[in-house]
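Per your request, structure below.
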């Protein structure tokens, strides 16, 4: 018999509670916990790693509660209920951690569709339906923090979306992800490329190292030195084709060399973060990369500038950078040497070690900003079509 999914209702609306109870009890896959109807009883009754669906009535401001549940319950899927949800509400609810939006008064067919989708997410046999988003972190200059950005972004994506996220270290000889995350994986990326002929979803999930109790799967180079090996563009293409069938997000940390495997990775990416710091040599290198990417035919929206170690009082201003590169800056990660070095020396990510720091918050906001917009846009079209054109400007604020 399939495991039943705990279902929790948090509402003071008696009519809404009765209606949800009646609908949910008709579906055998869900176990309604009728005694859990408040924040206190939720945290007393449900364990942090339990599979659960939480309905939250948003008639009053429950965004902080939504965010708290999303942060503390890794396997919880939150459904936010709101009468006439508009675009501002949708964006705020998704940012807080809601997985679905349910309009009130409730239509039974819509509720059934939502529960069916969430049940599939919980299922072991779940086959990802949405298109994977692949994000590559690149710079042709070493030592500017690519690995920190890749690792923290991947972890935040996993925690925010609750979807399976792959973090790939394509630096075959001198990758740092194992050190940043204090991991000694049983299998490394070289092993994966040696077994491309049997590569599939089951193989990936059984050989990639799951990071703690998250939905982040890591594939890094061996923590021990190995001679570098030649990887063809065809092999890289095959590798990422299988990954895209198995994960909702892929974050790739590349080395600085623009060889065949790196260019093929960039070709297959939906978004490329070109990382730089604000000094003239780094910016000149960034400028050269932009010229190369233009020759490779990359769309202007595909390649985005990410400034690392940003300081407000830099002699070179953001306006100067944009003028030099002839391109808007997508994101800037603040300089916080002490927070980053403390986390690196402990072998944990700054998002875990010091989540309240400005740099950890920046990584979280970056993950929210780059998270797949298909779902959010679908909700906007459903609930607030007249506000559709405003979604991007709101998300940027």
């Amino acid at each position: 018999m399939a495991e039943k999914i705990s279902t929790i209702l948090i509402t003071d609306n008696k009519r809404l509670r009765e209606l949800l109870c009646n609908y949910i009890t008709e579906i055998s896959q869900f176990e309604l916990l009728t005694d859990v109807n408040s924040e206190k009883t939720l945290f007393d009754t449900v364990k942090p790693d339990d599979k659960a669906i939480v309905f939250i009535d948003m008639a009053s401001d429950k965004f902080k509660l939504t965010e708290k549940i999303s942060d503390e319950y890794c396997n919880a899927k939150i459904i936010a209920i709101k009468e006439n949800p508009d675009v501002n509400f949708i964006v705020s609810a998704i940012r807080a951690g809601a997985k679905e939006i349910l309009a009130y008064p409730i239509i039974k067919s819509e509720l059934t569709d939502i529960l069916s989708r969430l049940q599939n997410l919980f299922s072991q046999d779940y086959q990802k339906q949405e298109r994977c988003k692949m994000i590559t972190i690149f710079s042709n200059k070493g030592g500017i923090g690519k690995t920190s950005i890749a690792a923290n972004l991947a972890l935040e994506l996993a925690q925010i979306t609750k979807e399976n996220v792959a973090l790939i270290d394509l630096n075959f000889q001198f990758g740092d992800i194992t050190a940043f995350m204090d991991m000694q994986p049983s299998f490394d990326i070289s092993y994966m490329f040696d077994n491309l002929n049997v590569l599939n979803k089951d193989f990936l999930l059984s050989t990639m190292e799951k990071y703690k109790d998250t939905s982040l799967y890591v594939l890094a180079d061996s923590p021990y030195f190995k001679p570098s090996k030649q990887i063809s563009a065809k092999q890289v293409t095959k590798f990422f084709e299988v990954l895209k069938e198995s994960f909702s997000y892929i974050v790739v940390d590349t080395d600085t060399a623009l060889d065949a495997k790196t260019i093929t990775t960039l070709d297959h990416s939906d978004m490329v973060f070109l990382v730089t710091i604000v000094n003239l040599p780094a910016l000149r290198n960034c400028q050269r990369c932009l010229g190369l990417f233009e020759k490779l035919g990359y769309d202007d929206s595909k390649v985005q500038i990410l400034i690392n170690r940003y300081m407000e009082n830099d002699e070179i201003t953001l306006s100067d950078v944009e003028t030099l590169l002839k391109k808007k800056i997508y994101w800037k990660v603040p300089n916080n040497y002490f927070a980053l070095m403390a986390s690196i020396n402990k072998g944990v990510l700054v998002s875990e070690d010091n989540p309240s720091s400005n740099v950890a918050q920046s990584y979280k906001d970056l993950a929210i900003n780059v998270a797949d917009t298909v779902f959010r846009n679908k909700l906007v079209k459903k609930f607030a079509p007249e506000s559709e054109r405003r979604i991007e400007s709101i998300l940027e604020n």
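The first strand starts at residue 5 and ends at 10.

Regards,
D.
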